[in-house]
Amino acid sequence: MIEHIGPGKTGDAVTIVPNPFNPSTRIAVNGELFTGDKEVKIIIYDIHGNFVQKLDARGSRFTASSIPWNASDRPAGIYILNLTVGAMAFSKKLVLVR
Predict the structure, then answer these.
(1) Bridge partner list, 81
(2) Where are the domains of the chain?
(3) Residues 6+ positions from 73 with CB-CB distance below 8 Å
(4) Which stretches make up the Secretion system C-terminal sorting domain (predicted)?
């Protein structure tokens, strides 16, 4: 079962800086989410729900730093970041401006 934690409950589970961005941004995930051996997936979709990119989400990578997403080859617009950590799911809006 996936537990979706909506706005107001996620707190700072996912931080995207800067947002809006051009052409790259950094994505950080709250290290408190990484208790135990949970599978971590980060997938970015366009506003129409089409797959854009899967980011490298190896466990300890997020506990100490953030990872970049370079969208220089993407059109301006709204993108959705989908993060799953174990049974928890988080979504965050990214805005690419030109």
Answers:
(1) 44, 92
(2) 3-96
(3) none
(4) 17-95
One-letter identity of residue 96: L
84 forms beta bridges with 41, 89
pLDDT at 88: 86
Query: Of the candidates 49, 37, 45, 53, which has an alpha carbon nearest to the alpha carbon of residue 85?
Result: 37
The residue behind tokens 């208790």 is 35
Return d(Cα 11, Cα 18) in angstroms, integer: 17
Which tens digits make up the pLDDT trace of 31-66?
776 666 777 889 999 999 999 999 987 654 555 568
Q: What is the topology classification, in CATH, of domain 3-96?
A: Immunoglobulin-like (2.60.40)
Return the residue matching tokens 């301006």: 76
> How far apart are the C-alpha atoms of 87 and 94, rounded to whole Å?
23
Kindly report each contact of residues 44-53 with a partner whose C-beta sits within 8 Å and lies 24 or more positions away, as own/partner: 44/69, 44/79, 44/80, 44/81, 44/82, 44/94, 45/79, 45/80, 45/82, 46/77, 46/78, 46/79, 46/80, 47/77, 47/78, 47/79, 47/80, 49/80, 52/79
